[in-house]
Amino acid sequence: MEKDLDKTSIERVRHLFENHYKDNYLPPLKEQQEEVIEEPSKLAKWERELAIDTTTNELKSFIKGTPILTTNPLLWWLDPLN
Asked: In the 3-class helix/strand/coil scheme, how is 22-54 assigned residue by residue?
Protein backbone atom coordinates (compact mmCIF):
# COMPACT_ATOMS: atom_id res chain seq x y z
CA MET A 1 0.00 0.00 0.00
CA GLU A 2 2.85 2.41 0.80
CA LYS A 3 4.39 1.88 -2.64
CA ASP A 4 1.05 2.66 -4.29
CA LEU A 5 0.76 5.77 -2.17
CA ASP A 6 4.30 6.79 -3.11
CA LYS A 7 3.61 6.28 -6.82
CA THR A 8 0.38 8.24 -6.61
CA SER A 9 2.08 11.06 -4.71
CA ILE A 10 4.95 11.23 -7.18
CA GLU A 11 2.59 11.26 -10.13
CA ARG A 12 0.53 14.07 -8.58
CA VAL A 13 3.58 16.17 -7.80
CA ARG A 14 4.96 15.62 -11.31
CA HIS A 15 1.58 16.63 -12.76
CA LEU A 16 1.47 19.75 -10.56
CA PHE A 17 5.00 20.75 -11.57
CA GLU A 18 4.44 20.20 -15.28
CA ASN A 19 1.15 22.10 -15.33
CA HIS A 20 1.97 25.04 -13.05
CA TYR A 21 5.69 25.53 -12.65
CA LYS A 22 7.64 23.92 -15.50
CA ASP A 23 7.26 26.85 -17.91
CA ASN A 24 8.07 29.40 -15.20
CA TYR A 25 11.40 27.81 -14.31
CA LEU A 26 14.49 29.22 -15.97
CA PRO A 27 17.83 27.57 -15.29
CA PRO A 28 20.47 29.96 -13.97
CA LEU A 29 22.74 31.55 -16.52
CA LYS A 30 26.43 30.66 -16.50
CA GLU A 31 27.31 34.29 -15.80
CA GLN A 32 25.19 34.19 -12.67
CA GLN A 33 26.83 31.01 -11.42
CA GLU A 34 30.36 32.41 -11.62
CA GLU A 35 30.08 35.15 -9.01
CA VAL A 36 33.28 36.64 -7.73
CA ILE A 37 33.30 36.87 -3.97
CA GLU A 38 35.08 40.03 -2.92
CA GLU A 39 37.02 40.49 0.29
CA PRO A 40 34.95 42.56 2.74
CA SER A 41 36.04 46.15 3.15
CA LYS A 42 37.76 47.39 6.29
CA LEU A 43 34.51 49.06 7.31
CA ALA A 44 32.56 45.81 6.92
CA LYS A 45 35.17 43.93 8.97
CA TRP A 46 35.06 46.59 11.68
CA GLU A 47 31.25 46.53 11.78
CA ARG A 48 31.33 42.74 12.09
CA GLU A 49 33.73 43.02 15.03
CA LEU A 50 31.41 45.52 16.74
CA ALA A 51 28.27 43.47 16.16
CA ILE A 52 26.72 42.25 19.38
CA ASP A 53 24.84 39.00 19.57
CA THR A 54 21.78 40.28 21.41
CA THR A 55 20.24 36.83 21.62
CA THR A 56 23.10 35.54 23.73
CA ASN A 57 23.12 38.64 25.91
CA GLU A 58 19.36 38.50 26.47
CA LEU A 59 19.52 34.82 27.24
CA LYS A 60 22.31 35.29 29.78
CA SER A 61 20.48 38.14 31.47
CA PHE A 62 17.27 36.10 31.53
CA ILE A 63 19.01 33.10 33.08
CA LYS A 64 20.96 35.13 35.65
CA GLY A 65 18.15 37.59 36.37
CA THR A 66 16.02 37.57 39.48
CA PRO A 67 12.51 36.15 39.13
CA ILE A 68 9.69 38.66 38.90
CA LEU A 69 6.81 38.01 41.22
CA THR A 70 3.47 39.16 39.87
CA THR A 71 -0.14 38.21 40.32
CA ASN A 72 -1.03 38.99 36.71
CA PRO A 73 1.65 38.11 34.12
CA LEU A 74 -0.37 39.60 31.27
CA LEU A 75 -0.45 43.04 32.88
CA TRP A 76 3.28 42.80 33.54
CA TRP A 77 3.93 41.81 29.92
CA LEU A 78 1.80 44.65 28.54
CA ASP A 79 3.57 47.25 30.69
CA PRO A 80 5.74 49.35 28.28
CA LEU A 81 8.60 49.32 30.80
CA ASN A 82 9.03 45.57 30.47
From this structure: HHHCCCCCHHHHCCCCCCCCHHHHHHHHHCCCH
Cα 21 to Cα 15: distance, rounded to the nearest angstrom:
10
Distance separating alpha carbons of residues 3 and 10, to the nearest angstrom: 10
pLDDT confidence of residue 3: 66
pTM of the predicted structure, to 2 decimals? 0.28
pLDDT tens digits, one per residue of 8-24: 888 888 888 888 887 77
